[in-house]
Structures are given as structure tokens and as C-alpha cells.
Write a structure and sequence with these properties.
Length: 456
Amino acid sequence: MTRKKQAPSLAVWDRQYLWHPFTQMQEWEQEEPLIIERGRGSYLFDTEGNRYLDGTSSIWVNLHGHRHPVLDRALNDQRSKVAHTTLLGLSNPPAILLARELVRIAPRGLTRVFFSDNGSTAVEVSLKMAVQYWKQARPEAGSKHSFVHLKLAYHGDTIGAVSVGNIELFHARFKPLLFPTRAVEPPYCYRCPLNMAFPECRLACLDPVEQVLRDHRQELAGLIIEPLMQAAAGMITQPPGYLKRIRELCTKYEVLLIADEVATGFGRTGTMFACHREGVTPDLMAISKGLTAGYLPLAATMTTEDIYRAFLGKYEEFKTFFHGHSYTGNPLGCAVALANLQVFRKEKTLTRLRSKISLLARLLKPLLHLPHVGEVRQQGFMVGIELVQDRSTKEPYPLEARIGHRVAQEARRRGLLLRPLGHIIVLMPPLSVSVDELTRMVNIVSRSIAAVTEHQ
Ligand SMILES: Cc1ncc(COP(=O)(O)O)c(C=O)c1O
């Protein structure tokens, strides 16, 4: 795709005034920015009218396509009533109705909803709730204030979320600010640290997890995990049975299970929540991204009646959860989230997704014949394609090669927007994508990988 020249002032002002996230601005300042002005369905359009397939669902949030009429209408209807009021000491209809709906669709047993405004804060809330829960529900249990998490985990960018994260490149320099945690090996089967293979391994990687839980149960408030798929880690899929076993271990050693469904929630893995796939109910669940189908920033932490009740008492007992944000339970966000769930029901989104997930798996298969594709990992509509320098040794590309970035640039020229994770090419189509669009997306991914890796 050849792009026409940008509206000059916007490009100049972007470079002059903006600071983009996860972006080396020195490099950005040398380039012509791609400025997206509007969207429709699976497509985004830049200021010059060029059209791109949204291969990241606008960073994993969009579900039903851009400008969905039901979502647009819900937003407009609510805007005509009020844009924002607070949940501190007041309530509002969309927040009440949404909380009720979320309880209906969540894993059984999650009966309370605490709103916040992005994935990181939903995680922060679950960590703080877990610590306060143990203090109030089981003071005799001692000081349970620490957490277990997987290596390579990503739970957001605020300090608590970074503390339970483990991506060296993003997190290392903040170590002095972080609280201590216990990190365990993830089930990264392609690069199994135990040199075993599933299913013969019988999930041997869970033995060290059990050991940590057994040895440190007195200090552990919770174990936090992205169920089924560690997304930002590089789309690392967990083998079947892994999550269920984690649930059993947490119950056995009295450590709360915190499911971070920020990326996996709302149909991404094929079921409404990833936890549903293994029949697991976590003690706390963080949700955001798809909650408003990509319309507005909104998040929630869901929990059980048992945890909720530990915060009840006379005012002077000070068991209150002293946490809240200015935009907690924002009526516009809640109204559009309610409409999102309505679209799921009306359009039978999850049922219709099934055949598209199978099609995606079929479309991805030939990619394994590309000489620099090490592994293709898929959970529903979440895909990670791991590029390697040498397939026989699985030698990764060095970060400096920026192989994923180069593939994304190539894909952009062909009309597809991607955002890789280092050497992992990520494909995250909107759930509403058509068969033709999906086919085109995979085709462009394949040709872009070939163009970059085979002609270096
Ligand atoms: C699993 C997971 N948790 C938390 C977050 C943080 O969400 P946010 O970017 O909305 O703060 C992300 C973001 O990608 C995520 O993938």
C-alpha cells in the first residue's frame, strides 16, 4: 500500500507535542506518523483516506468492529443523560445494571464487582483486596501479603502490577520501587525449562509451583496468573489442565487465585472468560480491554461473597476498602459495556466465533513451513508467531534485529496494522472479522514474514 502524504500540521504537531507509549521517540521523530482518523468494522482509515485492517483490535480491545451501531447508540443515549457522576457515595443506573450482567456471565461464584478504569488498576485492586482480605478475614493467619506470579508475566504498568510482572526489558530498572514476590517458571512448552514435552511431562512444571505454595503459604496472599495465555510475554499458551491444577493448588495451600483476564476476557479465547475453559472460578478476577468492546477505558475487579464479606463491619472497625478512582463506574463506559454484552447475545458472537477460530487455525498451518517460524501459538482469537533465527536450534533473533518491527512495517505497507512483541508476531483480529478479512490478514502476515526473514 502506498500512502499519500500526511496533513502537514498534524504530523508536525505530533512530533512536537506528543510522547507515545512504549515508543523510542528519537526514532519516531524521524518518521512520518501514521495518523488514524476513523474506523469502520475491521478497518481503520488514516487522515489521507488510506485503509488498514486492524490486526491488533486496537491493542486487544475491539471486539465487534469499529462504529458498531448498537455501541454508538448506547454511548449517545447515555451522553444525552449525563457523562459522569461518581460512585463514591452515589450510584448510577449503567453501573448497577452492568455489575448485575457481569455477575451473570462471570465464572460461577464471582458475585461482586468493583469498578476502576484500566487493566493495571484492576490488577492493583485485586492485589490490595487480597492483602486486606487476609488481615480482616483471618488475622490469625499472620501476615499474608506476598504474591506468586509466573516469569515473563505482564499485568500492567503501575507499580503494583509491575511488581507481579517479570519482563526484564520493561521492569528491571524499577526494581528498587517494587515489592518482593516469588516468580515461578511459566509453562513455555516450546522452550521447556525442564526439557520435557506435553503431555508426557504430566505438567511437571507445576511441582516447583506447589513447592513455593507449600513452603511460603504463611506469607502468600495470592497467586496471579493470566489464564490460558500469557499474552505480552509472547503469547505463551498454557497446556490443558494447567489452570485447573493451579486452582487446586491455591485452594490446597490457602492462597487466593487472581485471574488477570484483562487480555483473555470477553471471548478472546473462544469462551466468555478463559477461566470458563477449565471450569475454574478464581477468587479475584481483573477485567478491562474488551469490557467496553474497545470504546472507552473501563475496568473491574470481580470477587466472591466470601472476600466481600471480610470487608463488612461497623465504620469504626475501619474494614472499608479505601480505594477508588475519579472515573470509577463512569456511566458512559458502563452504558457501552452493557451494550457490548447485548451484542454478544444478539449476534451470538461466541457461537459464530467457533468456526472462525477453526478457520484461523487452518489458515495459520502453512506458516509453519516458513523457514524462520519456530512456533505458531493460538488460543481462540489470540495468536503469537515466534520467529527464530535458526529453527533447528530455536535460536532467537537478537532484540536489536527488530525482526517483529520490520515484519509489522512490511505488513503495514500491505494494508495490515500489527504490533509485535519483540520477535513474536501477534495477530488479534476483532471477533467480528469476516472470513475474507481474516484470510487476508493471515495472508499478509505470511507474506510479510517471508519478505523480511528470507531476504535479509
Ligand atoms: C494481561 C494484562 N493485564 C493487564 C494489562 C494492563 O492493562 P492496561 O493497559 O489497560 O493498564 C494488560 C495490557 O496489555 C494485559 O495484557
